[in-house]
Design brief:
Largest sheet: 5 strands, mixed
Shape: globular
Region (Disordered): 24-58
Number of helices: 17
Organism: Cohnella nanjingensis
CATH superfamily of the largest domain: Periplasmic binding protein-like II
Number of strands: 14
Biased composition (Low complexity): 31-58
Protein name: Extracellular solute-binding protein
Signal peptide: 1-20
Length: 486
């Protein structure tokens, strides 16, 4: 659940070993709860290269107004990129008026926004929301627009398929991530700790966190998120590593599955981090920004989030040296196990309340720089601007395009030209194992699991199985029992 980012973003063209299950969920973060980090505009296709330019009949001559997601004020670089994109789009489509909206998608607000007809024509969301938005009628069916898109076969299926619901397309992939662990190498060295191998285990994480922690100085070994949906999202990675699942879908029913032996094992690990190792912050009620910020500021040795979020915050906000920011896959529960991490991503959705003309223009805007030289030029300009400002560009690990495509290779060549592009360790990347979140009510599940995490962190000796059973009963009766799977 990462923090949502903007339309554009670069990809690290490394070979990812991903074991993904196909469909997608309703998840959370930067999360996911899903919010993510910033990235440049290599996102839609350029004026001259736009494969899906509107037909000559004539969206180009109709006066159309669309509202779009616009980055928040704390992201000036991204706002500059979006402003440049708007300018270039209007050079091709001077008949289109673009209204900027800085509304951040919130599953608790989308219903009100739609009911009041206040949702943007094009808004951003996270991977977990596909089924939810489609079933609520809050995402336009853009199947025809997508099928007519020249580059549809070059879209990254690992991401794009997450918004393919019952054979129809309801969203446009932007970028993605597999949850990882950031490790502060300098803090390890200060304690005489050798960084563990990238093929690490829960025991390695526990021992490393215990070794780094210095509670008297307010330093934690690891800062798992402890409030908001983020807490449930963070913990779910360990559920997956233990071999568990959030839910099962069979015979037309959705059934809670996280109160399994795997769920107990995963929560017992959290119990050890708190009560055995004393390795988490004394004030453990940290949201996404709190935990990632603590990592960037050197107040914790490890944090769990999207890889680019961790590295970008630590290097560009915290002033850490790139070589001191180690991005690890999530640890395996035991030696030889999978390094499972949540596979999430950011998507753009077209408002179903918009007119057909508005929906078409919104789709063209979303894909305006995709697969284009303009997109690459914008990416390179972003890297150059960061270099001028003494900052690093941190690529996303997954983007809308296939990383082995011709366009992916061009992006890789751009990255290779600059020494201020953060490089992920190839051995770590090879171990990444992405697992999609659940398809139904994932945000509700995350919120419910946050209560369990808080119970475990606040009370020594908490009956984990009882807590998980109660949580499973809650999501089952409040949410899953009402679902009828076709």
């Amino acid at each position: 659940m990462r923090k949502i980012t903007t339309v554009a973003s670069g990809i690290i063209a490394l070979s990812l070993v991903l074991t993904a299950c196909g469909s997608k969920s309703n998840g959370g973060s930067n999360a996911s709860p899903s919010d993510s980090s910033a990235s440049p505009s290599a996102s839609a296709s350029s004026p001259e290269a736009s494969a899906s330019a509107p037909p000559a009949d004539d969206l180009t001559s109709k006066k159309v107004t669309i509202s779009i997601y616009y980055p928040t004020p704390d992201k000036p670089e991204l706002r500059a990129l979006e402003d440049d994109k708007i300018k270039r789009f209007n050079e091709k489509f001077p008949n289109v008026t673009i209204v900027k909206s800085d509304w951040q998608y919130n599953p608790n607000e989308i219903g009100m926004k739609m009911g009041a007809n206040e949702a943007p024509t094009l808004f951003n969301t996270y991977a977990t929301e596909g089924k939810f938005l489609a079933e609520k009628g809050w995402a336009a069916d853009i199947t025809e627009l997508f099928n007519n898109y020249e580059f549809k076969d070059q879209m990254n299926p690992l991401l794009q398929d997450q918004f393919m619901i019952d054979g129809k397309v309801y969203g446009i992939a932007q970028q993605g991530y597999i949850t990882a662990t950031g490790v502060n190498k300098k803090m390890l060295e200060a304690k005489g700790i050798t960084p563990p191998a990238y093929d690490w285990t829960w025991d390695d994480m526990l021992n490393t966190a215990k070794g780094i922690a210095d509670p008297g100085k307010g330093i934690s070994g690891i800062a798992p998120m402890g409030k908001g949906n983020e807490a449930g999202w963070n913990w779910t990675n360990f559920l997956f590593e233990a071999g568990g699942d959030i839910q099962t879908v069979a015979d037309g029913k959705v059934t809670a599955a996280f109160n399994s032996d795997a769920g107990v094992k995963a929560m017992q690990f959290y119990q050890k981090l708190k009560w055995e190792a004393n390795a988490i912050p004394q004030d453990w009620a940290l949201g996404w920004g709190d935990a990632v910020g603590a990592f960037a500021q050197g107040r914790t040795g490890m944090a769990i989030a999207g890889p680019s979020d961790l590295a970008d915050q630590a290097i560009n906000q915290g002033g850490m040296k790139p070589e001191d920011v180690l991005i690890y896959p999530m640890p395996a529960a035991e030696k030889g196990g999978k390094h499972a991490g949540i596979l999430g991503g950011d998507f753009l959705v077209v408002n179903p309340n918009a007119s057909k003309d508005e929906q078409a223009i919104a789709f063209y805007y979303a894909t305006f720089d995709y697969f284009s030289d303009k997109g690459l030029a914008s990416l390179e300009a972003n890297i150059q601007a960061r270099k001028k400002d003494g900052k690093f560009y941190v690529p996303q690990m997954l983007n809308y395009y296939k990383d082995d495509s011709e366009y992916g290779q061009k992006a890789k060549a751009v990255f290779a030209k600059y020494d201020n592009v953060y490089q992920y360790n190839a051995d770590a990347v090879a171990l990444l194992d992405g697992k999609p979140e659940a398809q139904y009510n994932t945000q509700d599940y995350y919120a419910t699991m946050t209560n369990v995490v808080q119970e475990v962190f606040s009370k020594k000796g908490t009956d984990i199985k009882a807590q998980l059973d109660n949580a499973a009963k809650t999501v089952q009766t409040k949410f899953y029992d009402a679902i009828k799977v076709q």
